[in-house]
Amino acid sequence: MQNREISPVIRLDSADNVVVARVEISAGTQVASEQLTTLQNVPLGHKIAARMIEKGQPVLKYNTVIGYASEDLPAGTWMHSHNIEFGDTARDYRYGLDYVPTQLLPANERATFQGIVRADGRVATRNYLGVFVVGNCGATVARKIANHFDEERLAAYPNIDGVVPFVHEIGCGMEMTGEPMNLLRRTIGGHVKHANTAGGLLIALGCERNNIHGFIEQEGLLLNDMLKALVIQDVGGVKSAVDQGIKLIEAMLPQANAVQRQPVSAEHLIIGMQCGGSDGFSGLSANPALGAAVDILVRHGGTAILSETSEIFGVEHTLTARAVTPQVGRKLIERIDWWLEYNKGRDTQINGRVSPGNNAGGLANVLEKSLGGAKKGGNAPLMDVYEYAYPVTTRGLVFMDTPGYDPVSATGQIAGGANLIAFTTGRGSCFGSLPAPTFKLASNTPMFTRMSDDMDINCGQIIDGDKTIRQMGQEIFDRLLAHASGEPTKSELNGLGEDEFCPWQIGVLA
């Protein structure tokens, strides 16, 4: 692998009419592997016309249409949003026609990790106590209670990872029934009931529209020694609520600490997948490498949750074709149709516009971003589709309908049961999550080097030619097991996650 000459461009498919710049390329550079000369400066991660593309012709990347030429584009032209037009493409959904069942490994051959087995058989990767608010009015009280339990006060309880405030900005000023309230309740409830939550304290001001008693009843929660409720107006105000809340959490510490890790099958891993701050390399390295790890995980009986519905738009047919049943495939298209109606006439990603950071990183439009984003799902069959924050009970690759906004999307995945979040990034997203930790996969070596304190794995080794996607996938799978066993991620070491609990605010304000 050493002393080799590497082409400055990457060809993804023999049918493609563009190639991707592996490094920054100056105008006038001869690219021998493609027999072309660049006509403009090309930033790394951006595309170059590999042959003449006439106006109106489709632009092909991974032999998939990502747009249409807005003018005649000679070979060597820098290709980006200034000369690639966004447009509808014909898609054959082939509902379930390409389904191939996963060949699961025998139980005695499956990988293991050191997990925490709860009384009901669920497996945790972390061990937290949570302080949850039903509405924003309880946020300060929740923070004061949780912040009391600093490192010094928890020193006697080494098996507890922390006491975390789960606060948000809604819960009042919204309709008291309907999907917005149901969504909020099941999101909070999913975190309360999460395997990584050893116990919790529910905080309410007392007059929220998200009434604490209605919330407890609707979510089927049972108050006991490890789940308590506190209403600020009933106990005499903020100071009294903080004092009483601290005592309630203190009483939970001994039982929460009484756990130990033990070997468990990788089938108990539920991975939520995210991509944020994407660039032109994300779909070439980090995303397909994570997809390769997902294929391994699924063979070991585990579960992976693909999400960010607006960021698979344009390539959803690659998932519906391998759905376990036509009904599962149609559930996905129903969610796509909901988003198209929801975003009709708005300047949003599903209508073509990606964020400025994504655009600067080499992504021309949502079709190109979706093409790379969907690769996180590997080649496993699609086993089910869930609406936001619903409990994930089907094993294998599943899809959860969420926005593309990472904190909101990951919050829904964790509410659904994800016990790890795998986050790919090309620009360098700084994200963390609780009670399930996030580990981050960098798409390129320069960013990994620049932000090594935030990145866990360098998938840029694929771009550099030092590792294959398959090798990188195995490395990611091994790291999944290590982090599930308690090895801290970079986001945990940086103290991230407390402020990233973001329930989806879907038409809530009144």
TrEMBL record:
Organism: Pseudomonas eucalypticola
Pfam families for the chain: GD_AH_C, GD_AH_second, SAF
Keyword list, A-Z: Lyase
Homology family: Belongs to the UxaA family.
Domain SAF positions: 16-85
Molecular function terms, GO-annotated: lyase activity
Domain of life: Bacteria
A biological process from GO: D-galacturonate catabolic process
Name of this protein: Altronate dehydratase
